[in-house]
Design goal:
Order of helices and strands of chain B: HHEHHHHHEHHEHHHHHHHHEHH
Helix content of chain B: 55-70%
CATH architecture of the largest domain in chain A: 3-Layer(aba) Sandwich
Distance between the termini of chain B: 56 Å
CATH topology of the largest domain in chain A: D-Maltodextrin-Binding Protein, domain 2
Number of strands of chain A: 13
Number of helices of chain A: 16
Largest interface: A-B, 54 and 49 residues
Strand content of chain A: 15-25%
Shape of chain B: extended
Largest sheet of chain A: 9 strands, mixed
CATH class of the largest domain in chain A: Alpha Beta
Largest sheet of chain B: 3 strands, antiparallel
Shape of chain A: globular
Number of domains of chain B: 3
Radius of gyration of chain B: 32 Å
Radius of gyration of chain A: 24 Å
CATH class of the largest domain in chain B: Mainly Alpha
CATH superfamily of the largest domain in chain A: Periplasmic binding protein-like II
Order of helices and strands of chain A: HEHEHEHEEHEEHEHHHEHEHEEHEHHHH
Number of helices of chain B: 19
Structural class of chain B: mainly alpha
Number of strands of chain B: 4
Oligomer: heterodimer
Chain lengths: 362, 433
């Protein structure tokens, strides 16, 4: 009896397995950035309810992880769409092409702001990107004005900038695996880093070397520049608080002296608990991010495999739903979820490109 | 004689014992105290955990509804032929709901204010109305007083409003709060048991999000795990206990099984993604694949506990069966397995309970995903309960905080039921010799 049960179970499993492998997938699979995830899921849900197609599956794998899965090949076991909170890199396009993924449609959907926020129990803080860089970089220019780097000596905000309060520097933020962290380093830290002329010179020297044909020198200079500008200090003031932005909000509430780094949508939802700090004189609001005056914001994209259009049902309709005015327009339902919409002209262009399924060109 | 004089000089044993007695009693008491302190520590942690989860989560089991007088006229809905299912499906339900909101608050003018007004009810209300229309086409052309789900921001606001003096306004503004107050005054707000939470799949709108998709996903995944791991585990255990010769190879197998039981579960996920998805080309996010991955994970547990159960069957029973002429297979099937069954079942249930709470291996095979449709079989994409908890805890919307805790309660409920089942089976089927 046991034996027949065993064989039956094994047979059923193999049968089901082969069936699954041979049957075509009739729903769209979406992978990619955790930042785009909240927006892609809303579109997916509306798409599933409003049309006769099945609701797409949306997985949050991170931008890099999503592009890796996306570029693994063409076929129903590979995802149709990947979301990204940065643009696809040339190296990733090459990898895609190597695996037979040649035609890709790129869709820019909007922007996301990254905020530095603290608990409402304490004062709102006004920072410049230079302050942020000096407070959080691993090595900073020598405070005596010499053009050399010293390990970050600053302990309190007042040390960084006399106009700031004399509280200890304590910033809770995402770990290095996070796209938010990458964007924060690129936009906030590098923004402040560039304000030092001699560091900026390293980058222009690298460009010069590239023009002169010295690739090796150019690369090493570029690496040096990135190392200075993107490396976050590890001696305590920057606390890696995990990928969960809700957790950071909770911790800020418990510790009014600390600042936290997270996406704008979390600030929007928790406006009763936390307040965004002013960066370069701009408060993170819906409008200041949309018109580009708030400096720490990044573009959000998704990429579609052209080879799957017509194979997986509903991809063109999903594209149309995502780029419709009622979704990504200034009054659309994505803005309600905290996404910052594109300008009118840009939006019209994106919608037209998507209709024509324009190929990605870097 | 000499011994007597010696004992009078030296303290006798009983004196020594008596002298140390108080100290020993104290040590004994301390020793017991450590145990009690440990248990108390555990209990305090548990109480803290439960009060936190239940305190945050119990509000998720009720949902506020708003009553509206909806005039279902065919013109506004755009239905000219009620028998055409397409027209009924595509009708402008949100339009009539918005109109009834405008009629309820005629003082609201201006585009922005109207948008705020429409945000009082869930944006899934149109779908709800469509369902009612499909169920009862007679209501077309009449005016009905219907209840609609409140939007999540409104729902959170009303809940905090009734709980204590401190009000959480969240994303509602003063204008909306005024409307809500007027609705409450007119008895047009009602809080009901949140059936939606147990009927729907996941949703990005907290008021429409439900746990059913995750429950069904967990159920299908566990079914696959049980169907695969129990027969394979029992067969392996029977062979290793009853047939296998004692040599280097069986020792090696035994060591490996014990090692596998301690391997971090994410490794099994990596194995699953390489074999089932990479080699066999199965799609991601299926309970079938999830069940197979979890089978790999639970097999060692089931084999170890099944072996222990088989070992516990007294040799006299085996010998008696063989003595009256049973074959070895008959002895195993008729005597050893039935007697070992309670132990094996307990092991299987505990293994499954462990698998039920597992997220890490499922991350790799794509079961950590946003899936709206409630799965209807092992080949429909699905998530499982712990994954749903993880996804909701990561969502920005405030109303997901209470739903996260509610989902934890549901998962805990499942675990308690499974463990109770294990205890009951053991009590019921156990035999003593």
């Amino acid at each position: 009896m046991k034996k027949t049960l065993l064989t039956a179970a094994l047979a059923a499993a193999t049968l089901a397995g082969t069936q699954v492998a041979s049957a075509a997938r009739d729903y769209i699979t979406v992978v990619g950035s955790s930042t785009v995830y909240p927006f892609a899921t809303v579109v997916a849900e509306r798409f599933g309810k409003g049309t006769n197609f099945k609701t797409p599956n949306v997985e949050s794998t991170g931008s890099g992880g999503g592009l890796k899965l996306f570029c693994n090949g063409v076929g129903q076991e590979h995802p149709d769409v990947t979301n990204a909170s940065r643009r696809i890199k040339a190296s990733e396009v090459d990898r895609c092409a190597k695996n037979g993924v040649n035609d890709i449609v790129e869709v820019l959907i909007g922007y996301d702001g990254i905020v530095l926020a603290n608990s409402k129990k304490s004062e709102q803080i006004t920072l410049s990107r230079r302050d942020i860089f000096l407070a959080l970089a691993k090595d900073v220019p020598n405070p005596n004005g010499k053009e050399e780097l010293v390990p970050n000596p600053y302990k309190t905000w007042k040390d960084v900038n006399p106009a700031l309060p004399a509280t200890k520097i304590e910033v809770l933020g995402p770990p290095p695996t996070s796209g938010t962290r990458d964007a924060f380093a690129e936009l906030a830290l590098e923004g402040g880093c560039k304000s030092f002329g001699w560091i900026k010179d390293i980058k222009s020297q690298s460009k010069k070397a590239k023009k002169a044909g010295d690739k090796k020198l150019s690369k090493s200079l570029k690496k040096k520049y990135k190392g200075i500008c993107h490396t976050v200090r590890e001696d305590g003031p920057y606390v890696e608080a995990g990928e969960n932005d809700n957790l950071i909000v909770q911790k800020l509430n418990a510790n009014p002296a600390a600042l936290g780094v997270f996406g704008f949508s979390f600030l929007d939802q928790n406006a009763d608990k936390v307040q965004g700090s002013l960066i370069d004189g701009q408060e993170p609001t819906f409008d200041s991010i949309a018109d580009g005056s708030y400096p720490v914001s990044r573009p959000l994209y998704f990429y579609v495999k052209k080879a799957h259009i017509g194979v997986t049902p509903g991809i063109t309709e999903y594209l149309a739903e995502f780029t419709s005015e009622k979704a990504f327009g200034p009054e659309g339902y994505l803005t309600e979820k905290g996404m910052i919409p594109l300008g009118d002209a840009k939006r019209a262009q994106v919608a037209a490109d998507v209709k024509g399924l324009k190929n990605l060109s870097l | 004689m000499s011994s007597n004089t010696q004992s009078s000089n030296k303290p006798s044993t009983i004196d020594l014992v008596n002298k140390n007695l108080a100290k020993r009693y104290r040590a004994e008491k301390r020793f017991r105290g450590y145990g009690i302190a440990s248990i108390l520590f555990g209990l305090i942690c548990l109480v803290f955990l439960f009060t936190d989860i239940i305190g945050k989560g119990y509000t998720a089991f009720v949902q506020n509804y708003i009553q509206l007088e909806v005039q279902l006229d065919a013109d506004t809905l755009g239905i000219s032929d009620i028998n055409d299912p397409n027209q009924v499906a595509m009708a402008n339900y949100m339009g009539v709901i918005k109109r009834s909101l405008r009629e309820r608050f005629p003082e609201v003018t201006g585009r922005r204010d109207k948008r705020k007004l429409y945000a009082l009810v869930s944006n899934g209300s149109g779908f709800d109305l469509r369902k009612q229309m499909e169920a009862d086409p007679e209501i077309l052309g009449t005016t009905q007083s219907l209840w609609f789900m409140a939007d999540d921001d409104v729902d959170t606001y009303i809940k905090s409003y009734s709980k204590d003096g401190k009000v959480f306004t969240g994303r509602t503004d003063e204008m909306q709060q005024g409307w809500i107050a007027s609705l409450i005054e007119a008895d047009q707000v009602e809080s009901r048991f949140n059936t939606v939470f147990f009927q729907n799949g996941d949703s990005r709108e907290p008021e429409q999000a439900g746990i059913r998709g995750a429950i069904m996903g967990s159920l299908f995944t566990m079914l696959v795990t049980l169907l695969l791991s129990f027969p394979i585990g029992v067969a392996a255990a029977v062979y290793l206990e009853e047939y296998a010769p004692k040599n280097k190879w069986t020792d090696l197998i035994e060591v490996n099984i014990n090692n596998l039981a301690a391997v971090p579960s994410i490794i099994f996920g990596l194995l699953g993604v390489a074999i089932f998805i990479g080699m066999f080309g199965m799609p991601r996010s299926l309970p079938l694949v999830g069940g197979m991955v979890l089978t790999l994970m639970t097999l060692p547990t089931i084999i170890i506990s099944s072996r222990a159960a088989i070992k516990a069957v007294p040799p006299s029973i085996r010998e008696a069966a063989l003595g009256i002429g049973a074959s070895k297979m008959q002895m195993i099937l008729h005597h050893v397995l039935p007697l070992a069954m309670p132990g094996m079942l307990t092991g299987a249930i505990i293994g499954l309970a462990q698998a039920l709470g597992e997220t890490a291996p499922l991350l790799m095979i794509g079961m950590v995903a946003f899936i709206v449709d409630v799965p209807g079989g092992v080949t429909d994409p699905a998530t499982v309960l712990p994954v749903q908890i993880f996804l909701w805890s990561d969502s920005p919307e405030r109303a997901f905080v209470e739903r996260t805790s509610a989902a934890i309660m549901v998962l805990l409920g499942f675990l308690i039921v499974m463990n109770a089942l294990a205890v009951w089976l053991r009590k019921r089927l156990e035999r003593r010799w």
